[in-house]
Fold Thioredoxin domain-containing protein.
Amino acid sequence: MAAPASSTVPLQKYRRLRIVTFILLAVSVFLGIALFAQSTNQGAKTAAESIPEMEQQGPDDAAYVRNDPEDPMALGDPDAPIVLSEWTDLRCPFCAVFNRDTLPAIVEEYVDTGKVRIEVNDVSYFGDESTDAAIAARAAGNQGMYFEYLHTVYEAAPEDGHPDMPRDKLIGFAKTAGIPDLDRFEQDLDEPELRKAVETNTAQAQQLGVSGVPFFVAGGQAISGAQPIETFREFLDGALAEAGQ
């Protein structure tokens, strides 16, 4: 009578099976790691490609840098090594955050030391009242108080949302800012040339690809948003290094 078939695997065959299984497992792990790395790299590439071109490289300086020593919308030495161009809307809450929290340190560390000149470009991205507010700031600039007016407006800005900017409020900001000739200020609110200048700046910003504010360009590179001072230090120091400073 034949012996019953064994239900166990001979030791030698068992060892061979273990070796094969281990090899297959190692190959599977290696392929898994390779596929993961490839997908990660692809994801990083896709994320980088999704950043608008203006976020990586600014337009030609000649398109927007004014370099006018009498410019009321500029701070700093016209001969500073670099110009930090800022696009802002007076109804933009993030513009207010930047001007309250970050701009003072930039002025102290870079503008007052002669390293950087700031030039502001006004835009009206949030409706007619944005245009009216930009005109009011320019009217203050006609009396040499553009930045005092901006400071007053942004200090009063809410934490979020776009504040209303009726005429009486704009005049109230002028009083708070200490505009010396309020009659002239009110007359300038109706000045067609100031309105045209704001509309022209807004159209130019859109042509340049500035789709949101605040937006900044220095040394041919661009960043956006109410970034902390540490980010601006890195940004400006890089621009200065490129300029050989």
Observations:
- Confidence is low (pLDDT under 50) at residues 1-56.
- The first strand starts at residue 74 and ends at 75.
- Residues 174 and 216 are 26 Å apart (CA to CA).
- The domain at 56-242 is CATH 3.40.30.10 (Glutaredoxin).
